[in-house]
Amino acid sequence: MKKNDRSRNDKEGLTPISKTREWKLLYFQHGRPGLEEGSEFKGLCRYCEIREICAIPRPESGVWRCAYYKALIRKKTNLYENVIKQLEKAEEAANFDRDICKILAETMNELIVHFPVTMDDGKVRMLTGYRVQHNNALGPYKGGLRFHPLVDIDEIRALATLMTWKTAITNIPFGGAKGGIQLDPADYSFEEIEKITRRFTFALGNNIGPEYDIPAPDVNTNPQIMAWILDTYMSTVAPNERNRCIHVVTGKPIESGGSQGRDKATGQGIVFLIEEWAEDHGLNLKGATYIVQGFGNVGSWAACLMKKDESKLIAVEDVSGAILNKEGIDPDDLSNYVKEHGGVVLDYPKAQPIDHETFFSTRADIFIPAALENQITAETAELLDVKLVAEGANGPTDPDGDKVLQRKKIDVIPDILCNSGGVIVSYFEWLQNKRSEFWELKEVDYKLHKMIVDAYERVRNTAEEFKVDWRTAAQIVAVSRIEIVYKERGIFP
Length: 493
Ligand code: NAD
What we know:
The chain is of the alpha/beta class.
């Protein structure tokens, strides 16, 4: 938040910004997902609640900004279309069987549930939840649950498809799925979120299950939410089955059957891959600089784990705005600040506030996008001045952005490889639950390192063999594995 924005708010009689938890999620009210490109948008600000304000349309960047409060809102772009385009690109490069690509271009099952929940004030609210199961040729469906106001069926379809690629690349015996509820968590109390989670789980019924479809945390969901899902699911099965279904979700709290290292797994995987890439490219990570977009589970863990390599975090952007300190930001200190200040980096005293463009233009060695999809567009990719983009988020780069990165010779560790640490350790958690085992952190980290570096090498070798970019190579590795299975088993009947 720039100082002059604040005085403008005061002058116009608007409530000035303060460091409150309301900053946690600053989105406009529901019903905005269909923002039209170029249209003037007026809505009620989540922060001031009653005042009508205008968003500055920024359709090129895919981000809409509240005129007064710097709240960012994504313009809906069709992530699913991008995911399918990527599949077609790999199909052409590797000459995959057309029939198998036809299967993979569709999701297998799509469930939309509308369910009632009684709110704290006694009133009933109807909510909409999704679970999409893309493919289970390699094993049970697997994928996270997202609570976000812009969740819709297309987004969940796309994310489910990405999960299939991710499990295939890493040689995990899982398929791909994703789920979510369209809601803004800032609108609900802790108790309401519990009720919503439990009612959603009940509505999903047998469409999830420990050997069938296994959810995990994603944006705005966490181990606590996984514990509620587990408890609700267990309550709906026969008493003698209850302790046999503890692996119905992963990412649980340790005490409820979670795995050591699952909380940091996605960030840890990103860092292992950055280390591999740095070794391949002769970059000394000691003193190397990096910037991070999104400082939630993935972004903050990745940032903190880069400390071991003595790399320097210099800029961070999240939903509340962006900050810069060229001398270096201590990721642990920032994490503590974020925990104490409503989950956002706004007003962090040891860095200066910067705008979206300055953040993207910050010269650094590495950029870790770890927020949401479609952040690296043609426009923002032009601004980037980095050597490597390590995609922590799912789908952070759109196809136009990708072309610009290639032209500028910026390397990319693509999402389906880069953020696969989460699902790898989810698989470890699932295995431990099935075998009634409990692995030490050292063992989890060792196995994660081996699996993710093996996947990295497969992608690197494929990129060399087919002379394609890494995103296409990663896609080729994933589809090749599924193609073999379909060919071996044939299509029933
Ligand atoms: P999270 O909810 O913990 O954090 C999301 C972060 O993104 C927050 O810091 C938020 O402020 C920021 N953000 C939201 N909208 C933004 C915007 N418009 N501009 C800038 N920043 C914005 O979520 P997470 O679990 O860390 O997930 C982040 C990404 O990583 C998602 O794409 C998710 O699908 C992907 N991912 C997560 C996991 C996991 O294990 N949690 C695994 C694989 C991939």
